[in-house]
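[Q] Does anyone have a clean structure-token version of this?
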Amino acid sequence: MSDFEERVVCGLRVRIDRTLCVGFGDCVTEAPEAFVLDDSGTAVFVKPEDVDRERLLRACDVCPVDAITVWDENGGQLVPGSL
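[A] Here you go.
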């Protein structure tokens, strides 16, 4: 598996950096439809398109180690950072 997993959802480009993720699971708690922890305890996508945009952004933003990065339609970084 790659060090990065990326999807475009609700016009947002969401990337999980698997090398930074330490498996706190805050993203899973916030949006279990979108994320799960795999067998190694690292966040992976499930069905992020099933979560509304605001909740998806919150789920990405709660990562305590900033392993999830989100960019908007224009390439501006939203997470971590400006929420």
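[Q] Thanks! Anything notable?
[A] The chain has one domain: 4-75.
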